Amino acid sequence: MNQHNITNQSLAFALLLVVIALLISQKEKLGLGKDIIWSVSRAVVQLIIVGYVLKTIFNLNNGWLTVLMVLFICINASLNARKRSRNIDNAFIISFIAITAGTTLTLAILVVSGSIEFMPMQVIPISGMIAGNAMVAVGLCYSNLNQRFADNRQKILEMLSLGASIKMASGTLLRESIRAAMIPTVDAAKTVGLVSLPGMMSGLIFAGIDPVKAIKYQIMVTFMLLGTASLSTIIAGYLACRRFYNARAQLKTLS
């Protein structure tokens, strides 16, 4: 198979796509110019740093460093998920518990089943995939909870005044929020191979791996993304829902 090398010239041509996006934002007055430049700059710097860090960790092949890297990924995912938690106290702790629980359980099942080996070259990339997917789902759950509690405030107050428990007053809102947060992951699973060609499967095939084996790996990835996102979102949703009430089971004033 031919070796495909990405040169500086190739990167420069790819950068033209970003320039086009900037020009469109400027012309249409979308106000996205600074965000695009900042996000691209961060991505470049972060990827360069992480690339060298991962190369060092892969060469050392140390179990403790692998665990620390997985923990680092979960912490950063939790910090980003917290940004959508406007009315939720201790959102970082909730996010960390939810994302770490989902990621750890998934990794444990993969390692115990023999699907992957406990080595940094396999554990860290997979941790990034599943924690990143859980981060998006948890963040969407927070957004939906905030919106639904704001829209249904009067209804919740009426239910509480009639003696309903917190669980009864917010049960429907919580279920709807979790369901809405899972839609991107579920839709991605429905259309995998039809709309999107998965990176892992394509990469393995390009590397010369038997397509059947590559497909099995991608099926495994689909299972673990769905499982981790579901578990993390449910944990985060139930823990966050209680934060909309005070110690006396009264609904807090939302910002």
TrEMBL record:
Cellular component, GO, one term: plasma membrane
Entry's localization field: Membrane
Lipid bilayer topology: Multi-pass membrane protein
Residues annotated as transmembrane: 6-24, 60-79, 91-112, 124-145, 188-209, 215-241
Family of the protein in this entry: Belongs to the UPF0014 family.
Pfam family, one: UPF0014
Main location: membrane
Keyword tags: Membrane, Transmembrane, Transmembrane helix
Domain of life, per lineage: Bacteria
Name this protein carries in UniProt: Iron export ABC transporter permease subunit FetB
Source organism of the structure: Winslowiella arboricola
Gene behind this protein: fetB
